[in-house]
Amino acid sequence: MKQTRKHYSESFKQQVLDDYFQSGMNQIQCAAKWHIKRPTLTKWVGDCTSVQKPVPSPKNQKHMDAKDQVLENLRVENERLRREVEYQRLKVAGYERLLEIVRQEDGLDLLKKDGAKQ
User: Fold this and answer.
1) I need a surface site. Which of 41, 51, 72, 97 has the fewest CB within 10 A?
2) What Rg value do the Cα atoms of the chain yield, rounded?
3) What is the sign of the dihedral through the CA atoms of 79, 84, 89 and 90?
4) 21-50: average pLDDT
């Protein structure tokens, strides 16, 4: 049985991304809340972080002065960057584990250069 592809509006995507970046939920929780698949959310987050998007604004922005707006935008951007750094750390840990498995199973140390002094 062939599944049809779902298409989401840009406004819905932005709502989901705003909720994800501001709530502190992980991708699994956020995807479940919005009834979407986690890989879909992962793709949206990747698209959002690779092309600089405007920082989501808080709901009570009318009552904030300019300095508070700048601080809030910096806080949100800081949180986004923290998530991105954590994702990159997980990738590095995965690659290191993969190299360790190759070294154990095949006896190959892919990090050593051929002919290097030991």
Assistant:
1) 51
2) 20
3) positive
4) 87
User: How many CA atoms, within 13 angstroms, populate the side-chain half-sphere of residue 64?
Assistant: 13
13, two tokens:
């995507």
Is the pLDDT assigned to residue 106 strictly greater than 50? yes
- Co-location of 92 and 74 in the same domain: yes
For residue 52, name the pLDDT band (cuts at 50, 70, 90): very low
Distance of alpha carbon 44 from alpha carbon 36, whole angstroms: 11
Residue 34 in any domain: the answer is yes
Q: Model confidence over 21-33: pLDDT tens digits?
A: 888 888 999 999 9
| Total domain count, the chain | 2
Residue with tokens 């994702």: 87
Is the C-alpha dihedral spanning 8, 14, 19, 21 positive or negative?
A: positive
Q: Is residue 64 domain-shared with residue 95, that is, in the same domain?
A: yes
Contact 20, 27 (CB under 8 A): yes
Listed in order, strand segments (DSSP E) in 25-90 are none
Q: Are residues 65 and 97 in the same domain?
A: yes
